[in-house]
Amino acid sequence: LGVDLPVDQEGIVELLRRQGARVAPAVLKPLAGALGRLFDGAASLLVGLLNLTLIPVFFFYFLKDLPHIRAHLFDLVPPAWRPAARARLAEADAVFSGYVRGQFTVAAVLAAVFAVGLSLLGVRFGLLIGVLAGALNIIPYVGQLTGLVLALVMVLVDFTGWGRVLAVPALFAAANWAEGNFLTPRLVGDKVGLGPVEIMVALIVGGELAGFSGLLLAIPAAGILKAWLRDAVALYRASELYGRETPPTAAPAAPPDVNPA
To answer: The whole model's pTM is what?
Structure first.
């Protein structure tokens, strides 16, 4: 092996010390990297769970203080503009309220579907996982992904064959298809004034611009923006500019000021 083995105790100890000093960095460096990634992942998970906990708390206090916030905002609006501002705010309130009611309705329907489906498939804790998946579905993609992962883990732990392993993703895929094509367009999209394509575009743009928060607020923000744009178009069509028979002519340009040398 290319190593002279000592015969006395002190030599053996010295040899082990030298070999340990040589091998330790090669072993400890990957171990430290793995532990660092593990701690980073755990920290990210804790932050995500904390955010999920803070979101309903934030909305509770926001809705509680909304009348005071609205009153302070109206104090900053010029009196002549307040009727229009109240109308725009009423539209935004109707869109947001419709979105919240629609999302809770979709979540309740999906919770029932997942709970019944997983229970019929014999998934351990299927009822609890189904209710959790439906409740978290208020946040786009989070509920169904969480439910699918938990259900697959339970099925693999109690593995009895590939039938259930394939049936669980099939259940979530069917529910996702039904949500995207029927539930969300009719229970959420109709209340916020958005079609299926507009909802998809809003989620993509919101996710790109603001990440998780963008996904959460994309649909109501898009609905409010669409309502305000519709009002702006109506004002434009009722304006004098839209009703002109002839296009406005530009004033003749002034001749250049030429100073003789």
So the answer is: 0.60
